[in-house]
Amino acid sequence: MAKICFFITLFAVEYLATTSKSMAINEVFWDKTNHFLAFSVLYFLLNFAFKLEILTKISLLLVFGIQIEIVQSFLPSREFSLIDIIADFIGILGGILAVYVVKRVKFNYLVLTSHLYRYKIYKKHNR
């Protein structure tokens, strides 16, 4: 399921980034926010979809971001932007942080529930 979500998101990002329609929101802040969010989500999904080394995941997504910028350089209403690639990279870092937080919360939950389970058994046997 994670792989399906990753590829659907990947194709959606590709389509939205390379469509020649001009967007209603042309502000720099929203453009960079979109890059950040898209690549954070892509990293998050890629992490759970495929068991790859962290540098491999970063490299794959950076190549994807550069590919988008190259395609945009050939579109009349778009242009190549190095700042967009930097926003993509920062988004990837955001995705790494999100994965860390989710794994940490899950680990803490598992530790807590195992302690509670052991306490429940201990209490049951020592009555």
Description:
With 127 residues, the chain is an all-alpha fold. It has one domain. Helices cover 81% and strands 0% of the residues. The protein has 4 helices and no strands. The longest helix has 44 residues. It is elongated and about 65 Å long.
Ends distance: 46 Å
**Extended strand count:** 0
Listing every helix as H and every strand as E from the N terminus to the C terminus, the arrangement reads HHHH
Beta-strand portion reads: under 5%
Q: Unreliable runs, pLDDT <50, ≥5 residues?
A: none
Radius of gyration: 20 Å
Helical proportion, percent range: over 70%
- Count of alpha and pi helical runs: 4
Tell me the domain tally.
Answer: 1
Pfam family, one: VanZ
Domain VanZ-like: 30-102
InterPro entries: VanZ-like
Protein name: Putative membrane protein, VanZ family
Write a concise keyword list for the protein shown above.
single chain, 127 residues, mainly alpha, 4 helices, Putative membrane protein, VanZ family
Short description:
This protein is mainly alpha-helical.
Summarize the helices and strands and which ones pair or pack.
Layout: H1 2-18, H2 28-49, H3 54-73, H4 82-125
